[in-house]
Amino acid sequence: MTEERKQRCRTCDTAFAAPARRGLRGSEAGFSKSYIVAVSRMSIRPASSVRARSQIRIPALPQVAALLLTPAITAPAVAADLAAPRPAAEVAAYTDWSGGYIGLEGSAGGSYGAYTFGPTTIGGRPVPAFKSGDSTGRSDQGRNATTAVGGLFGGWTWQTGPWVYGVEASLDAANLKRPVPSTIAGFGYADVDPAFNIVRAKTDLYGTVRARLGYSFERYLIYGAFGLAGANARFLATYPDLDTGGQATAQRELGYLGFTLGAGVQYAVSDHLALGIDYRYIDLGGSRRFPLGAVPGDQGGPVSTRASFTSNQMFLRLMWFPDGLRVPPDPDETAPHDPDNGDTGRFSLHGQTTLIAQGVPGFRSPYEGAQSLIPHQARQTTTATIFLGFKLSDTTELYYNPEFSQGFGLSRTLGVAGFVNGEAQKAGAPFPKLRSNRYYVKQTINLGGETVEVPDGPNQVATRYDAERITLIAGKFALGDFFDGNIYAHDPRVDFFNWSLWGSSAWDFPANLPGFTQGVYAEYNRPEFAIRAAYTQVPKEPSSDVLDPRVFRRAGLNAEFEQRYVLPGLEQPGKLRFGFFSNVGVSANNREVVTLTQLGAFDDINDAAAATRRPRRKTGGYINLEQALTPELGLFARASLNDGRTENISFTDIDQSFSGGLSLKGKAWDRPDDTIGIGAAMNGLSPSHRAAFAAGFYGLLIGDGRLNYGTERALETYYALNLTKFVTLTFDYQFINNPGYNRDRGPAHFFASRLHADF
């Protein structure tokens, strides 16, 4: 599967069959082809309107064994020859990774580290332990710094069957800098304004020696690793003399040796090259006690301390195997559990991983607020998802999706209302964070008509549905799994990055920080249209990770009508979706908080918002167009609007949005699986919402402390290079005018690359 999109039959849409992830992600599902079976079940014909894409599936261990043990059958050379068929030579279903390798690895904004100091004494007097922070907290002095780590590695691998084991060494340079603010207790500078950096800790070299143990299947290797890690550290201390105006300084260099644990995945692009993603947790332990200068003054004295260090690192890797790899042939398009190969199966197992590295150079920034976009930085995000499915009966299915995510968007996913990285979460973490993002049961009530054969795919067990049917779902999911779909712009893992291009961004859909909610969903489907609705929980307050359990008083109602048609003249399929939402959640009224602040009831408008939040209703809607112009060229367009009276509670700070663009496959230049996309978006705020931000309000994503209002406008173009059926490498550019609706800031240019693999 080269892309994780919904591919639907024009005459019998299966919009829910392979749900698409929405919220802060985009779609995570799709299937390659659908079949319409005549009532007699005597023949199967491909639906001509399907926009087919190849699928990649993980064979379960029994299936791998079956592939190894099942002989190929050779037809007789002569019709009259009744001799038994001869088995062909067995072909391994996995890559042989044996031998040596070397490679390059790097991380731009995807590595985090923190120093912890203590026990510490000043003139023999103990002071509380303190730490530098890992650059992810809002109070961290180094939160806007970009940490780059990269270098060389090499190793040797042995293999027994699909099991792989080996050793590896790496050496990486880094620019890790972590300051300690003067606000810490015990040094006598806590009340000094403005604060300054009292200690700066730096690391510029890492080394590791690790053992690796893994499992090989198809072109993939999944592995765990453990071993030794070492690094240097340099501590620079500055102690001002508040009485004389002078200052004392000190410097100390140390070496550390500790341990590392990690895991990774790599994919054989060719017989000699592989791409991979490698995660490492490094714990270098604590140092011996060392002196670090002296604090001047009567309450000062010599400083003595110990320092410990931990780090989380995520690398993108390029590997070269000089002796070559033995790579199996790509699996057939008809994969296990496709209805058309006679094996419908009860289980489904798929996966994906996506790494995005994105940077922004300098731009005009005369002032900054707590939620402003910061120039001159780079950040990296990584996700890995498993899609598990089980068919309890012909009409009842269970699904579960655990997911790891690591990293943050630029400026900690703040500063732009139509944010520039669809994989960036407001619930980011410096380490791989495991969440159970989906678990739900799906019940299908078949009502007759032609039968739709649905192949095995992400969040879809191979099964058969009637063209006319009712689908009921209960559990945890993203509303974008079922609403606001668009095959040209809905999945930041394979198409557009910008939130306002892959979604109707004025739709304030109920969700926790990663973009999921709990509730019930129902759909009535016919070949020519579908009607769907959901009733779900809302967050307990704006931008909260906790969902409100009072579903009969505070909840979200979302509905959508989808019309399918063939455009006259072009004879190409299209879909038009009309969405409506009405959500009741705890929020503040924009006009009320502005008035209270202007009257002097509150000094800070954010205090006014916190004090006046109560259950309020927000309503709105969207229109979504998906239109094929040719088999290779598609058009998309969206318009969305909400009432703008209250602060948004879940998605982003947008009250009106218009977007559209084109998506073109690469058939014309002999790259039929490549995609080039271009799109534009314009976002706006209601008058009362503008007034709130001008008074210093901080919303879900934006807040410069003041506002010279202008519509936020975005232009994005990308090229998705399909390296193999399994792996896609994308290069992306975005231009944002008036980021955060502020004419005083920007314009800003964003550059990104994305590595996406399906399992």
UniProtKB/TrEMBL annotation:
Keywords for this protein: Cell outer membrane, Membrane, Signal
Q: Which InterPro entries match?
A: Autotransporte_beta_dom_sf, Beta-barrel_OMP, Carb-sel_porin_OprB, OMP-like, OprB_sf
Q: Name one GO biological process term.
A: carbohydrate transport
- The domain of life is Bacteria
Q: Where in the cell is it found?
A: Cell outer membrane
List the residue ranges of the region (Disordered).
327-348
Q: Name one GO molecular function term.
A: porin activity
Q: Please provide one cellular component term from the Gene Ontology annotations of this protein.
A: cell outer membrane
- Domain named Outer membrane protein beta-barrel is located at 88-285
**What family is reported?**
Belongs to the OprB family.
PANTHER family, A to Z? BLL7405 PROTEIN
- This chain's protein is named High affinity Mn2+ porin
